[in-house]
What we know:
The protein is mostly beta strands. The chain contains 1 helix and 6 strands; from the N terminus they run H-E-E-E-E-E-E.
Amino acid sequence: MTMESIREFIRRAPFEPFVIRLSNGEAHEILHPECVAITKSKVVITYPDEDRVVHCSLIHVNAVELLQRA
């Protein structure tokens, strides 16, 4: 996965929540564009309500999909 493909999801207007799926099976929901930052090699995801930050290497990102809400 490239940083530019993830940035496309972050920059959508209007913003649509999406999920980042990692090679270890983890899935991280991005509910607001300010809760994710991306660099050349990493994705940093914040969970403000949980006071939690997750650092992921881009090489471990398997998929980025729009979040399907029921």
